[in-house]
From TrEMBL:
SUPFAM superfamilies: Periplasmic binding protein-like II. It comes from Micromonospora eburnea. Keywords: Signal, Transport. Residues 1-24 form the signal peptide. It comes from the Bacteria. The keyword Transport applies. Belongs to the bacterial solute-binding protein 1 family. This is Carbohydrate ABC transporter substrate-binding protein, CUT1 family.
């Protein structure tokens, strides 16, 4: 709802769209004393008053453009309440947050993209349960299906923040029009299109799974999407909860299906090299060859809109857009993979609770949406405030009751697997290791 698995939402620095006087990593929002409290524009923030001069720290995966927009989204809240928000975004969030928490240096709030990691902290007694206004706001504004991902042993610990839809394939509408290619609506059509493009002398697909300490995660999204397409939603749930082993033949089928594209030298890796170049290509750069005509297709989430260079028109008639990653058998429904972040608290001071409550509100959802490149499952989000075509499409999919939605699987698994051996296993697989030993290795790492 990976949300920007926001390890998935790390943005390219060169596409900065806001000129803000803050850094993407380090200190964030600034106000020392509110000069607007009591004004008409602050009426919506009256319930958060009474904490002027207090500081709240937030640690997140969001860096670069995403970090700047996130900080801009709470600027009016800061101006009206006088609460200073010290923000830090890190590309090494998944590795560093446990170090900080276990070392007694936890932030006040963190935006966690993995329910498995959230559960780890909840089980260890590190998180503060939602209570009072924060719990009420969360239950009013988000569907129960989202809240369950932040619930551990019946206790709600987190509030959904942003959401993303992962079942997308990026392409260039201009190129498709020039070449006479049609957007595929079934898996068979997708493969036929890939063959057509390959026959023309262009590698149809480009991909990249390098992401610092999180290298490998983009490949896990492929497997999750294929699990939803080759199996039933119930089998998907069994897989993420380890009711079936990781090396079950059903999982192998999904991995091998992904391999028909990712490990096909005729298909990849447009603009970068052979199959093994996928492991060393950063996910931020992986789709950019589409604009250069070096590849035509790139499977990545809605948040990839942030990675196109400044000036790129992202629209149905633009330089880049995305279509729904087709189902193998459309008659069985429309599977949708998504993710997002959850705001959790490691302290419960009144000012911390005020910030967490605000981040669960409709005011924040609409404030952030107006800045672009953002979607949310918050039911107070007005679609008119969602600025980009791809985000509007994402929100419509999130609100589509006929879609079969499932949260990112690796984010649901224990962190040692979902953010550990699964990522590493996908790197080994891309680099040539066979399916069976890769899945056996991940299975053997599942906590007993």
């Amino acid at each position: 709802m990976a949300f920007a698995r926001s390890r998935q939402a790390l943005a390219v620095a060169g596409v900065l769209g806001l000129a803000l006087g803050v850094t993407a990593c380090g200190t964030g929002s600034n106000n020392k004393k509110s000069s607007k409290a009591g004004s008409a524009e602050c009426a919506a923030y009256e319930k958060y008053q009474g904490h002027e001069g207090k500081k709240v720290s937030i640690y997140s995966t969001n860096t670069d453009v995403e970090a700047d927009k996130l900080q801009e989204s709470w600027k009016q809240f800061v101006d009206c309440t006088g609460i200073t928000i010290d923000y830090e975004g890190s590309r090494e969030f998944e590795a560093q947050l446990p170090v900080r928490v276990d070392g007694g240096n936890a932030p006040d709030l963190a935006t966690i993209p993995q329910p498995g990691l959230l559960k780890r902290f909840a089980d260890a007694g590190k998180l503060k349960p939602l209570a009072g206004d924060t719990k009420t706001m969360a239950e009013q504004n988000y569907p129960a299906d989202w809240l369950k991902y932040a619930t551990v042993n019946g206790t709600l610990y987190g509030v959904p923040l942003d959401s993303n839809v992962k079942s997308f394939v990026w392409y260039s509408p201009k190129t498709f029009k020039e070449k006479g290619w049609n957007v595929p609506t079934t898996w068979d059509e997708l493969i036929k299109l890939s063959d057509t493009i390959a026959a023309s002398g262009t590698k149809p697909w480009c991909a990249g799974i390098e992401s610092g300490e999180a290298t490998g995660w983009p490949a896990t999204d492929w497997i999750e999407d294929l699990m939803l397409r080759t199996q039933t939603p119930e089998v998907y749930d069994q897989w993420t909860t380890h009711s079936i082993p990781f090396n079950d033949p059903k999982v192998a089928e999904a991995l091998d299906r992904a391999g028909t594209i990712l490990k096909n030298e005729k298909y990849v890796n447009g603009g970068f090299g052979g199959v093994k170049s996928i492991a060393t290509t950063s996910f931020q750069e992986a789709g950019l060859p589409i604009l250069q005509g070096k590849c035509a297709l790139h499977r990545q989430a809605s948040f990839y809109a942030n990675n196109w260079p400044e000036g790129t028109k992202v629209a149905e008639d633009g330089d880049a857009y995305a279509f729904y990653f087709p189902a193998i058998d459309p008659a069985k429904g429309k599977p949708v993979l998504g993710a997002g972040q959850f705001t959790v608290a490691f302290s419960d001071r009144p000012e911390v609770q005020a910030v967490q409550t605000f981040l669960a509100s409709g005011e924040h959802a609409n404030s952030r949406a107006k800045l672009g490149s953002w979607a949310s499952a918050n039911n107070k989000l007005d679609l008119a405030n969602v600025t980009s075509p791809i985000d509007k499409l994402s929100v419509q999919i999130l609100q589509d009751k006929s879609a079969v939605f499932r949260f990112d699987g690796s984010d649901l698994m224990p962190a040692a697997v979902g953010a550990g051996t699964f990522w590493k296993g996908m790197v080994d697989w891309v680099n040539g290791k066979d399916t069976a030993p890769v899945l056996q290795g991940i299975e053997g790492s599942w906590p007993k």
